[in-house]
Structure formats: structure tokens, C-alpha cells
Amino acid sequence: MWPPPSEIIRQTAYKVTRAGELIGREVAERLGVPFGVVDLSLAPTPVPGDSVGEIFETMGLSAIGAPGGTAALALLNDAVKKGGAFASSQVGGLSGAFIPVSEDLAIARAAAEGHLCLEKLEAMTSVCSAGLDMVALPGYTITETPAAVIADEMVIGVVNKKTTACRLIPVPGKKAGEEAFFGGLLGGAAIMPVRGNGLSDRFARMGGRIPAPIQSLTN
Asked: Does the residue 211 lie in any domain?
């Protein structure tokens, strides 16, 4: 019986991380500098076969963004971290999976086919290494709408005590469903529709700040 995908991911992460640390230490020695850390991050590119989204397909999901996608991403991150941390004495960086829409062929395809929406992507960022990454928005999106989306993403980072960010790209002259091409490693993706465009104006204009959590209540 074949091992489950999570075990294959752990074993692969171990092998890649171990090789990375050995190579890193050799390079550091030759350069005469201290060895730093090994970052376990899975960072995709638009090159075929270099996709985080394709890993979801091996885990049983026909497309990233389908129900179960958030759980699959959490399992993927867990397997990568456990396999990699066991292979290295100095793990650092974000060390997890990135899900940039335009930079990953499978994720971009899921967005173009309507399987991945902005709301599902936001939910998935609660368990991945970054946030809403390389998301193309319609050019007519009202300014306050991305501001409110950024506030939502920031709260996910604050509450979960994790690194998060936004790369939201309103594309002038483009409508939802059309294609945007950024070139090179930035790839291209379908323009994702923004539900509720213009419904957050007053909230976004209120200003203020997101309050820091009370850490003493969790100690």
C-alpha cells in the first residue's frame, strides 16, 4: 500500500531540506561567512510542474478552491514544516506554502474556471505563509473596497499571530473574467470578481487602527 500524500510530502521536505542545509553550509564556509537558516517555503512559479496548486490535486482535490482546500493547505504546511524541521538544525523564514494566484499555473487556472474566489482565497490565507498574493482585480474596483479587504487580511494576521500581506492589483480597463498578464515570474491570471464592491465605503473611511490582542489572557 502506498504511503499517504502527507507522508510523501514529509519525506520529500526532509530530503530537500537536508540537501539545502549541506549545500548552504558548504557555500558559507567557502565565502567565509556564518551559515544562516534554511527556509522551507514552497514558492511556486508559472513554469509547468512548479505549482503548489498541483499538490492539492495529488491530495484528492480536483481544483484548489474546492471545499476542503483550506484543510488541504493546512495539512500541506504541517507536512512541510515537520519534514523540514527534522532535517535542519536552523530553520527560519516563513517556511510554508505560498499561494500567489498569477504566479502558480494551477491556482491561476482554478481562478479562471471559477473554482477559486476571493473569499475562499482569504480563508486559505489563515493557514498559509503569506496573504492575498498576486490577485488581479477589476479596474473599476472602488478604492475603499481593496482597503477593506486589506483590513480583513490584516486582522487574520493579528489574531492568528502570523505573517500576512496583500498584493492586490486593480488592472485598468479590465473586467472580471478577463485575463491580465504581468510577464516573467509574475505570470498571469484571470481578473477575480469582487463581491460587494462599494459596500464598504463608510467603514473604510472611518480610519483608526486594528487593536493589538491582549496577550495576558492567553498566558
From this structure: no
Question: Which structural domain range is residue 105 located in?
Answer: 5-206
The pTM (predicted TM-score) of the whole model is: 0.88
* Torsion of Cα atoms, 75 then 79 then 80 then 86, to 10°: 150
Q: Where are the beta strands (DSSP E) in the chain?
A: 38-39, 91-92, 132-138, 166-171, 179-181, 188-190
Q: pLDDT (tens digit, 9 = 90+) per residue, 32-66?
A: 999 999 888 888 988 888 899 999 888 889 889 99
* pLDDT tens per residue across span 115-137: 999 999 999 999 988 899 999 99
**219 has pLDDT over 70:** no
Instruction: Say which CATH number the domain at 89 has.
Output: 3.20.70.20
Cell 513554469 appears where? Answer: 47
Structural domain count of the chain = 1
Does 105 map to a domain? yes
3-class DSSP state of 179: strand
Residue 215 lies inside a defined structural domain of this protein: no
